[in-house]
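Quick start: read one record
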Amino acid sequence: MGQRNLRFKESTKREGLECNTTKVGFDKLSRIILDYLGNRDLLNLPKTAFLASSTIPTDMVLRCYDWAQQASRGNECIVSGFSSHLEQRVLHFLMRGTCPIILVLARQMYKRVPDELQPLLNNGRLLIISTTKATRQSRTTAYARNQYICELVDKIIMVGVDEGSSLAPLKENFSNKLHSIISPTTCSTMKSSLLTQKHQ
């Protein structure tokens, strides 16, 4: 188990991991530098990405919580930057379960792992990947990180993505991987059903 928590580094420039971000208004080519901490065996598991915009309707949030509780009890590896508020809340639910988790940072690797993540590292449930040497997350590094995630996984769940979202280009480019996109209509239907059951 001790070997699983060693840190590994590699530089990757193959097609698909070298991210040209000009489509969303950036001029620079972001080179992905991967830095690993945790259980790299998780990379061999089936992987689902969870990516959410920063602004999400309340009814959609409730649907995401329900999904996270179900996913936390499964064997599929959940991958995200867990950066937006909703992504952080989803991580909270996942941590309470047994599913494997890959956390992808849009900043340099932690110098000190957050206390709440250490137990997951210790029991082999977590892999942390840093995609840049930048000291802080920026819009550029976040986009490159999200593109890397989309390349890495088998399925993608995107939430709250509209035309103005930074996730919109990724939704279009990786449409073949999109799975169970949670829509406001679906959430409203579910919420109404729950309310009906409550009053029966």
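The CA atoms of residues 52 and 97 lie 20 Å apart.
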